[in-house]
C-alpha cells in the first residue's frame, strides 16, 4: 500500500506525540497555550509533500492515505474515434504519472518549449511539491454505449444508480463518461492536475462537472486520525482501512470472475454531492444530533460506549428499554451488522460552494466510496439511509455518479489498457 | 506586525534553505529526487499552525503574512435595530478573537453545554489548530443608509465602484452591508470561522454571497516567496510588503484627517471576483503570454531583466526600437510609474468553483486589495487595465465589492466601536 506509511500533516491526535518530539520546532512551540497549535503541526510535513508511486497493481488514490484536498472532474467524451480516445488515455497516463512525481504534465513544460508555441504545462504548480498527489480514473456507464465498441465489455454492475427517496439530483452535477479524482495535500497541485488533463483532452473531452473538496472526511489507514464533517462529528471511524487487506479483497477490489476480466483488480467509485443544511442542523439540540448520528459529538464514541473505536453495541438499552442507539441512527443503519455484512471504503471531502441564494452557505459532503459491487453494497446502504435515517432531514443529494475504476497501471501500460487492448 | 515573523509551510524557495536544514525531517527527505518535495515542506509547519494575535492597532489579516486559504463572506443585515446590530458586532468580536486562539466560537462550545440545547459551536474545527486564522471585518456603502443612523458617518470614499468597461458583474456575487474575510492555513478553520459568525448572526444577518479561495496569490512580507496565479505566472512580486511601514501609511492605512475619525487607522477593501478564461489562455503562445504579463514565466523577471525582483525598466527597447515591456502589458499599466505613484496591497486567492456549464472550469482569481482611498488608487488602476490591458481578453469581472475596514480592536473593544460609540 503506497499510502500506509504516510501520515497527514494535520490531525494526528494520538499518533503524533513521538513525531513532534523529534522535531525542534515542535518543542519550541510547546510554550504556546494548549490547543492553539493543534495536535501536531510539524509531524510528517515532508511526508505530506512527498510523491506517491503512480504505478502498481491498484490505482493510487483509493487506499492511499487520504490527502487533505481533492479536485474531482467528470468529463463527456466528444470524439467518436476509439483510436483518439485510446491515444488520449495514453497521453493522460504519462502526464498523470509525471505530475505525481512533482514534474510538469508534459516534457518541456511551462517554459521549456519554443516561445512561439503555447506552453505544454499551465505552470501554476511550478514551485510546488508533489504534495502526495494521486490521480485516479473511472469510466461511467455511458462510455459503454455504441460509440467505442465497448457495449459487450460493460460490467453488469456498471448501470446508473437507482433513484433514491429524497434525491434532488442536478443533471449538471451528475454522471459523465469518464471521471478523474485528483487528491493532494496542496489544493493547487490537485487543481493543476485536473486542469492539465482537461487541457490535454481539448477537443476530445469536455468538462461536465467538477467539485473541489477542502477537507477530507475519511481516514484510510489506522495511523490517521478521524476527521470531522460539517455536522461537527467525526466521520468514518468504522471505515475500511488499508491494513485490512482481506476485507478490501472482499468489499473493495473486483475479483477475477466477478465480471469481465478487464476490471479484475479494479473497483467501483460512487460519488454523491450531498448538500448539508447546516443552518438547520446547527439549531438542533446536542442530544438529538447525537441520537441522529449514533455517537457522542466530542469523543465520537458509539452511544453507550466510551471511546471512539469501541465497538458499537446495537442492542444495549437504557432507561425504559429504549435502545441507546436509536432505530433511526445513522450509525445503526449504515453498519455492516444492519446490512448483512456490507462494508465500503469511504473517501469523501467537505465542500463549500458559495451560497444558495437564500441566505445560506451551499456546503456539504462530497461523498466518494469504493466498493466491489455498488448494487449490493452502496445501493442497499443508501436505500436504508434514504428511507429511515433521521439525518436525511438535513441532507439533500444534489449530484450522483457511478464509475468503474480499472486496475492499476504497470510500467509502460496506460489507464484502461485492460479494457482497450 | 503580527505576521512578519511567520512563513508559509509551502513555497519558500530562496528563504527556505536555512529553516529546512535546522529540522531533522528535512534532511532525511533530501534523499528523495529533486523537486518531488518542493521548496521546503517542513519549514515552519508549527508557525503556520500557530495563532495570530487578534487585538491591535490594525485588524489582522491585512499585512499579516498571507495564509494559504481564504473564506470570504458578504452579508446583508436583516435587523433594522441599531442596538441589535451593535450587540451582534460585540458577540462577533468575542467569537472571532476566541477562534483566532484556536478555541471554539463560544464558551461551552460544541459539546460543553446542556444536551437539550443546540451546541454553541458547530464543532468541525474541534481537533484543528489555530492555523494562523485571521478574521477581518468591513462595512459596505449600503450599511450607511437610513436604517442605523450612519448616513453622516459615511466616508466620502465609501461609494460603490464605477462600472468598468468589460464588467459582467453578478449582483448575487457583489456588494453587501458587511464583509468578513477569514484567512487560515487550514481551509476548514477558515470555513468554520465564517460559518460560526453567520450562525451567531442568525435572524440578524443573511449570507449574500461567499467565496472560497484555495491558494494565495500574494506575498505580504519579504520573507514569503511569490506564489503563482492560474495563468501560471508569479503574481504580486511588486506588492506592498509589511516591512514598508512608511509606504503602508501612504497607500494603505487611512490617516487622521482623511475623513471621519472612526476610520483612521483602518483601510478600504476592494474585492473582485475575476473569472479567468484559462482554456483560451492555455492556447496562447508563451511569448504572447509573457508580453501580456510583462514578465518571463519561469523566473518572473520583468522583460529585459534577469531576476524576479529586478526593477522593471519601462523604457528599455529591443530590436527596431520596440519596447521590451509592451504598452499593453499588465505590469506596465498596473505599475506605480504609470499611475502617478499609486500602489495597493494585494491579498487575493485562486479559486475554482466547479464548471461554467459550457465544458470549462469556472476558475480565476478572487482579487482582494487594501488601499487608503480606492477612488484614487484602485479605480484609476482598474480604469487603465480595463481599457488597455491585453490580459482583459482573458478575464471577466463577475463580482465586486467595496468595504470600509475599521481599525483594529483594543482589548475590551469591539469591531466597529469607533463607528458605533
Give a concise summary:
2 copies of one chain form a homodimer. Chain A is α+β, with helices and mostly antiparallel strands and 421 residues long.
Task: Give a written overview of the molecule.
The structure is a homodimer of 421-residue chains. The first copy, chain A, has 421 residues and is of the alpha+beta class. Chain A folds into two domains: 1-49, no CATH class; 67-79 and 131-420, no CATH class. The first copy, chain A, is 21% helix and 18% strand. Chain A is built from eleven helices and ten strands. In chain A, strands 5, 6, 7, 8, 9 and 10 form a six-stranded antiparallel beta sheet that branches. Chain A has a four-stranded antiparallel beta sheet with strand order 2-3-1-4, covered by helices on one side. In chain A, β8 (349-355) and β9 (361-371) form a beta hairpin. In chain A, α4 (82-100) runs antiparallel to α5. The longest helix of chain A has 19 residues, at 82-100. The two termini of chain A are 27 Å apart. Mean pLDDT of chain A is 90; it is low at 1-35 and 37-42. Chains A and B meet through α2, α3, β1, α5 and β4 of A and α2, α3, β1, α5 and β4 of B.
Amino acid at each position: 500500500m503506497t499510502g500506509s506509511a504516510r501520515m497527514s500533516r494535520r490531525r494526528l491526535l494520538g499518533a503524533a506525540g513521538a513525531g513532534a518530539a523529534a522535531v525542534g520546532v515542535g518543542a519550541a512551540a510547546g510554550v504556546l497555550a494548549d490547543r492553539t497549535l493543534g495536535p501536531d503541526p510539524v509531524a510528517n510535513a515532508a511526508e505530506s509533500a512527498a510523491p506517491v508511486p503512480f504505478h502498481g497493481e491498484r490505482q493510487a488514490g483509493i487506499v492511499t492515505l487520504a490527502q487533505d484536498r481533492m479536485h474531482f472532474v467528470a468529463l463527456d467524451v466528444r470524439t467518436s474515434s476509439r483510436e483518439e480516445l485510446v491515444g488520449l488515455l495514453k497521453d493522460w497516463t504519462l502526464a498523470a504519472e509525471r505530475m505525481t512525481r512533482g514534474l510538469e504534465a508534459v516534457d518541456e513544460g511551462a517554459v521549456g518549449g519554443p516561445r512561439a508555441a503555447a506552453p505544454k504545462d499551465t505552470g501554476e504548480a511550478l514551485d510546488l511539491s508533489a504534495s502526495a498527489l494521486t490521480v485516479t480514473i473511472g469510466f461511467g456507464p455511458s462510455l459503454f454505449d455504441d460509440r467505442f465498441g465497448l457495449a459487450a465489455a460493460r460490467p453488469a454492475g456498471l448501470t446508473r444508480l437507482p433513484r433514491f427517496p429524497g434525491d434532488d439530483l442536478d443533471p449538471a452535477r451528475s454522471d459523465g463518461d469518464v471521471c478523474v479524482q485528483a487528491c493532494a495535500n496542496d489544493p493547487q497541485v490537485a487543481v493543476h492536475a485536473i486542469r492539465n488533463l482537461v487541457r490535454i483532452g481539448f477537443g476530445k473531452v469536455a468538462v461536465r462537472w467538477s467539485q473541489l473538496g477542502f477537507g477530507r472526511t475519511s481516514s484510510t489507514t489506522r495511523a490517521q486520525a478521524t476527521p470531522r464533517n460539517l455536522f461537527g462529528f467525526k466521520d468514518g471511524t468504522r471505515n475500511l482501512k488499508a491494513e485490512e487487506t482481506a476485507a478490501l479483497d472482499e468489499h473493495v477490489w473486483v475479483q477475477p470472475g466477478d465480471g469481465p476480466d478487464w476490471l479484475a483488480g479494479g473497483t467501483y467509485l460512487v460519488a454523491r454531492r450531498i448538500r448539508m443544511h447546516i443552518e438547520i442542523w446547527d439549531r438542533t439540540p446536542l442530544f438529538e444530533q447525537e441520537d441522529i448520528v449514533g455517537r457522542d459529538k466530542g469523543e465520537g464514541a458509539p452511544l453507550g460506549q466510551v471511546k471512539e473505536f469501541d465497538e458499537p453495541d446495537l442492542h444495549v438499552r437504557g432507561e425504559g428499554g429504549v435502545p441507546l442507539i436509536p432505530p433511526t441512527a445513522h450509525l445503526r443503519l449504515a453498519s455492516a451488522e444492519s446490512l448483512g455484512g456490507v462494508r465500503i471504503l469511504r473517501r469523501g471531502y467537505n465542500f463549500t460552494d458559495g451560497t444558495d441564494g437564500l441566505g445560506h452557505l451551499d456546503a456539504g459532503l462530497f461523498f466518494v466510496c469504493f466498493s466491489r459491487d455498488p448494487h449490493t453494497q452502496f445501493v442497499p446502504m443508501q436505500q436504508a439511509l434514504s428511507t429511515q435515517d433521521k439525518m436525511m432531514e438535513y441532507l439533500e443529494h444534489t449530484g450522483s455518479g457511478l464509475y468503474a475504476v480499472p486496475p492499476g497501471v504497470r510500467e509502460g501500460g496506460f489507464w484502461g489498457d485492460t479494457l482497450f487492448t
